[in-house]
Design brief:
Layout lengths: L9 E5 L4 H12 L3 E6 L8 H5 L5 E5 L5 H11 L3 E4 L6 H6 L1 H22 L3 E6 L25 H21 L6 E6 L3 E3 L9 H10 L15 E3 H15 L1
Parallel strand pairs: 1-2, 1-4, 2-3, 4-5, 5-6, 7-8
Helix pairs in contact: 3-5, 5-6
Length: 246
């Protein structure tokens, strides 16, 4: 990958205060990008972005991607060259408690973002992050492939599968053969691990929290099998994809 490609590029990262988002902003800073982040404010004491913020050069904007007027105000002013869309309700257990918010954020929030970018009428490369949970779980031993069936038995999975369908509809309706300014693609990463992840109900953070207090770990799903990858592996894929799209 040609890392010089990202130097001085204006890059928008939604969800920049999250686990993957904060690492991505850090990496883009190292590459010399001009970064703006859009995210909800966090009320958690333990937050990776808070630790890093004093050393980061980023325009830090707080707000809700469900509010399209808020997105228009900031994105039209910034006019990004590249967008990494990571903002999401990303916890499966939370989706059971807040199904409407999960669907609104992960589906309508994504559509809001794409609609605003279409209005800018400027060349822009957009990498939209969904999840491997967008696939219908048929308990295969291999990893899922891009042409496997979409689906979801929980609201988080359903929201990510729905986002994929909406993105495809947007591409077919407004971009394919009609708009050569926007380049869009989705990326479906699996579970990621790495420093700075304090999310609830996640295996390795739960281990660290319990062991640091000399407590036993409650493994919620001991028979479950999931693929894992380091956070920088996933982000490397996003950066590669953005460069190839461009």
């Amino acid at each position: 990958m040609n890392y010089n490609f990202f130097k001085n590029k204006k890059i928008l990262v939604t969800g920049h205060t999250g686990f993957k988002g904060s690492w991505l902003v850090t990496w883009l800073n190292i590459l010399g990008s001009k970064v703006m982040g859009i995210s909800l404010s966090s009320n958690k004491n333990e937050n990776h972005f808070k630790i890093l913020k004093k050393d980061l050069n980023v325009t830090d904007v707080r707000g809700d991607i469900r509010n399209i007027n808020f997105l228009k105000k900031h994105i039209k002013k910034f006019k990004p060259d590249i967008v990494f869309h990571l903002a999401a309700q990303a916890i499966v257990s939370t989706s059971y408690k807040y199904p409407i918010k999960t669907i609104e954020t992960n589906v309508l929030g994504t559509l809001n973002l794409l609609s605003v970018l279409k209005e800018i009428k400027k060349k822009c490369t957009v990498v939209l992050i969904t999840s491997d949970k967008c696939y219908k779980n048929i308990e295969v031993k291999r990893g899922y492939k891009e042409n496997d069936e979409l689906g979801g038995d929980d609201f988080y999975s359903a929201s990510k599968a729905s986002a994929e369908l909406v993105i495809n509809s947007f591409y077919k309706s407004y971009i394919k053969d009609k708009n050569n300014l926007l380049k869009i693609a989705t990326a479906r990463a699996g579970n990621v691990v790495g420093g700075g992840d304090w999310s609830e109900n996640r295996l390795i953070p739960d281990c660290i929290k319990c062991w640091s207090k000399k407590q036993k770990v409650n493994v919620r799903n001991p028979n479950a099998t999931r693929p894992w990858q380091h956070v920088l592996e996933a982000l490397s894929g996003y950066l590669h994809l953005a460069q190839k799209l461009n």
